[in-house]
Amino acid sequence: MSDVVTLLDAAHAAVSAEPENETLRLRFFERLADGELVLLLEREAIGESLEPKVFDLEEGPVVLVFDREERLASFTGGIAPYAALPGRVIAGLLKGQGIGMGVNLGVAPSSMLLPPEAMDWLAETLDGGPEEVEALPQEFLAPSVPEAVIAALDAKLARAGGLAVAALLSGVVYAGGRRGHLLALLDVAEGAEPALARAMNEALVFSGIEAGELDVVFLRAGDPAAAAMGRVALRFDLPAPDVKNLAPAAPGMDPSRPPKLR
After folding, report:
1. How many CA atoms lie within 13 A of 96 on its CB side?
2. Between helices 193-206 and 147-158, what is the axis angle to 10°?
């Protein structure tokens, strides 16, 4: 097995130590969804068309994924065709197919089999998006959310470099008396609003907080509302965009052109 401990290894170890801890289980699946995985293919991809290699095990058919290319090479014993895809894309491809996922089988501490039901659940959880509403804030307050929510938001925003400059989290009182929490994303890149709204919704879902609610708004840093929130809000500064890799996206990396299974 590999000596390198990855983020997926750490998440798997945490949930293995406390298998009844639902929050840790959710964090593992969030890590699986957010991370880039290498999917073993039957043959090289042709354009946007992928043919995963399916193994018929006692537990049923599975595809194999690894969180490092070296782990794939260790499993196959040499060069093998693969596609590097976000875990969320692979889950979407497997949804309803009756196919499970083998993760790092035999080559890492996080070696495990996930049944088809787990992949269906993950894909459906990721499909659930936020609802658009209209409300007029009357007062902003210091936020009072569980630490798990703050940690989940921080992790999501850390991976959104270049999509916004910063985020502000505050309590809010709306016209009519409704209270809640508001997350303002500042100076958002053109067209990034839907992806950011989904990511913030996922942060809440995977935080393990039941019946949680978080409103998201998009503001310019110079807006009066942003200034008012800034006086009481918790601020998250997003990292600068990574411009090192400007190569064309691999199959599945462009959400507007998902890969096709063959």
Report:
1. 4
2. 140
Compute how many other C-beta atoms are within 10 angstroms of the C-beta atom of residue 169.
23
One-letter amino acid at 250 equals A
Two structure tokens written together for 221: 């840093």
d(CA 239, CA 159): 8
Select from 86, 106, 127 the last residue of a domain: 127
213, 181 in Cβ contact below 8 A? yes
Same domain, 192 and 233: yes
Q: What element of type H or E holds 206?
A: helix 193-206
Residues with Cβ < 8 Å from 122, sequence gap 6 or more? 29, 32, 33, 88, 91
Over its length of 262 residues, how does the chain's per-residue pLDDT go in tens digits? 556 789 999 999 999 999 988 888 988 999 999 889 999 999 988 877 889 999 999 989 999 999 999 999 999 998 899 999 999 999 999 999 999 999 999 999 999 999 999 999 999 988 866 667 788 999 999 999 888 889 889 989 998 889 999 999 999 999 999 999 999 999 999 999 988 998 898 888 888 765 467 899 999 999 999 999 999 999 999 988 654 443 434 444 344 344 444 4
Which region holds residue 60: left if phi is over 0, alpha if psi is between -120 and 50, else beta? left
Q: Is residue 251 part of a domain?
A: no
Phi then psi for residue 249, to 5 deg, are -65, 145
